[in-house]
Amino acid sequence: MQAATRGENLALARRGHDDMRALVMDGGLALRRGAIIVGVDTGGTFTDLVATIGGVPRVYKVLSTPRDPAAAVIDGLRVMLDGARAGSLTYSSTAATNALLERKGARVALFTNAGFEDLIEIGRQNRLELYALYPARPEPLVGRAMRFGVRERTYFDGTIALGLTRSELARVTRNARRSGADAFAVCLLHSYANPRSENAIAKALNRLGRPVSVSHRILPEYREFERLSTTVVNAFVAPRMSSHLGRLGRRLGGARYRVMQSDGSAIGVSLAQTEPVRTILSGPAAGVIGAASLVRTFATDRFITFDMGGTSTDVSLFDRRARIRTLSHPGGYPVRTPVIDIHTVGAGGGSIARVDAGGSLRVGPQSAGADPGPACYGRGDAPTVTDADLVAGRLDAGSFLGGRMKLHVDRAARVLAKLGRQMRRGADAAALGVIRVVNANMERAIRVITVERGIDPRDFALLAFGGAGPMHASELALELGIRHIVLPRNPGLLCALGALGAPLGREFSLTVREPARDYRLLLRRADPMVQRARTELLAQGARAAEIKTELRADLRYRGQSYELEVGLTPGFADEFHAAHRRTFGHCAPDAPVEVVNLRLRATAAGAQLRPARIGRSRGAPSPKRRAPVLAGGRRREVPIYDRESLGASARIRGPAVVAEMSATAYVAPEFTLRVDDYGNLHLEAPR
User: Fold this and answer.
1) Conformational region of residue 48, where left means phi above 0, alpha means psi within -120 to 50, and beta covers everything else
2) In terms of DSSP H, where are the helices of 280-323?
3) Roughly what angle, to the nearest 10 degrees, separates helices 282-293 and 494-501?
4) Pairing mode, strands 593-604 and 608-611
5) With contact defined as beta carbons under 8 Å apart, do 488 and 683 qualify?
6) Which of 38, 268, 607, 681 makes the best surface tag, with the fewest CB within 10 Å?
7) Strand duo 608-611 + 22-25: pairing
8) Among candidates 38, 17, 43, which has minimal Cα distance to 466?
């Protein structure tokens, strides 16, 4: 990385006022007047930071430090804040995700009912790939020798048929001590109905001084396999996440410190350390929340978020609101916690390109990350997507990180030429091949959340962000038939902006399994959840008047084995019948309906973003220079514009390149660029 002076770095951070062109206010947080509010997103390649000081934004971007992610955060804060101390910091990260995907978590010992030790391996008969001839399942996170049966039995109604004895608890403790485990997972049948036995085991295991994950605290719902899997995943990532978050907290001093959840809200660091399964998709969720905070400036509230970073790409469908689901499969492991409906693929700027044994070009999922990084960063030797973009002329080397970081064009050209020889092509053909293959990978991801669900992507705009998203959005949109692309300001920092403005939030659920008759009775059953949520949010600094609660219920016809979620309102039963008809094409209004679970979402508003209008453009925009770019299948002279010079109403016909500190945008020949009153770039192509 090219050296930059402290003054240059600080000047770049202060340019955030011009780059963001927005005002961030304190919102619903009980902070002292003028407190510094910070949002941080740690990715596989870069760590992004956004702050507001007295209502004036600052931004910064720095290479991540994989061996100690906190180091990049602290270094970035030191430069961006010029020695000042943050009053509140919200952190999003892929640390828990990476620990799970790379299987670099803890050695876990599992304690469950005797006879059910292999439930984690048996799972369900559902197949994620229905037509795969050779379906593959991930190896269980707990090996057979680390699964211990407990002589105990609780029935579905909470009756304890076989209670724990002192000798059984002593045996559990001995097995735990001898196992050599780093963490423990405890999951007993029907503990959601009566947690007494789980609490007794947890109390005994806590004396050993290692993290203990208890199923009824993490997921108090019936269906033992999903509860067991979620608890084991939590135990697997807990030691690593607890250590990482603890190191960062100690270095932050007295800042109020929160962590993003997968559902787009933030929780206190202590809860994130004990229940890190709630943060598995915190980084991607922050991007969707960042997009939602700016939706009123886009002139559309129906779009597909396309977040392409250095290591992966995350896509989500935003149809007037973010979609929340309660079951996800990160790394192939079922996790039942609320998450924004996001699909992730291993395709990013750092994805490594190679020719396989059959002579086909492959891109990803392996990534060069931040260390060594793409070849053009000066250390790596493998060709990556970023190297291909640079050789294609679509990445402006002089504007990368505002000029703070030097890109080595010669190294990128050398590794692409080597790849081209393996393909029996030139460097330009290899670069275009890498771009096309990675675009095809991302196109498939978008089709998963649209076409495979009966949704036409052409009915939505494409909202592109992340450090690499704006470079690939044009050609990706053309393949999908999308004719409208939106590029927000500072697209490479939108996840950090989402973290900064994320609301405080808590989600609770409760299995009830009662007839859907008495609405007021259900409200009384949910009241303890509501009171607990309010207490926890107030302890995290929320103002009482800002706390909002939403109750929902999982309903089904009696005898069904699946549920539909609807809002818990006086007419919830009628809404269920309507939802059943929309989903399955039929309903049975006279059939008895069962309430399976009650769900609560409580939130308190975070820092509020108030976008400001920008100045009008004076005449036709002038490019800062022209450069040879691979556009339309051939190399041609293309204008390169500085985004800061583009005022409202400015128009540019493609092909073109638009550079800024956090990202570079490529405008394909089929598109015309238009700047709106808030500084968003709209790329539009005729239908």
Assistant:
1) beta
2) 282-293
3) 80
4) unpaired
5) no
6) 268
7) antiparallel
8) 43
* Structure tokens given for 618: 């004076």
Phi, psi of 187 (to 5 degrees): -145, 110
Sheet holding 56-63, edge to edge: 56-63, 46-53, 37-42, 88-93, 256-260, 266-268, 504-515, 593-604, 547-557, 564-567
Record the tokens describing residue 435, joined without a space. 């771009």
Q: What tokens appear for 630 in the block?
A: 């691979």
Judged by DSSP in three states, 362 sits in strand
Contact 361, 374 (CB under 8 A): no
Q: Residue 49 pairs with which residues in a beta bridge?
A: 40, 60
528 preceded by cis ω (within 30°)? no
Give the containing element (helix H, strand E) for 512. Answer: strand 504-515
List, in sequence order, every residue forming a beta bridge with 341; answer none if it has no partner. none
Bridge partners (DSSP) of residue 648 are: 616
SS3 (DSSP) at 431: helix
Q: Is 576 helix (H, G, I), strand (E, B) or coil?
A: helix
Does residue 391 contact residue 428 with C-beta atoms inside 8 Å? yes
Tokens of 328: 């996800």
**Using CA atoms, how far apart are residues 348 and 346, in angstroms rounded to an integer?**
7
Cα–Cα distances (Å) from 416 to 137, 340, 424, 551, 594, in that order, read: 35, 37, 12, 54, 60
Most confident of 117-121, 537-541, 614-618: 117-121
Return the residue matching tokens 């703070």.
404
- In sequence order, what are the residues at sequence separation of 6 or more whose Cβ sits closer than 8 angstroms to the Cβ of residue 10? 79, 82
The beta strands (E) that lie in 198-310 are given as 212-214, 256-260, 266-268, 302-308
pLDDT digits (tens, 9 = 90+) for 514-544: 999 899 999 999 999 999 999 999 998 889 9
Amino acid 650 reads A
φ, ψ for residue 171, nearest 5 deg = -65, -40
Q: Which two tokens stand for residue 24?
A: 């961030």
Burial of 225 (0-12, 13-18, 19+ CB in 10 A): middle
Write out pLDDT tens, residues 635-683: 999 999 999 999 999 999 989 999 998 899 999 999 999 999 999 999 9
Which residues have CB under 8 Å from 68's CB, separation 6+?
247
191: nearest Cα among 225, 155, 165? 155
Tell me the one-letter amino acid at 445.
Answer: A
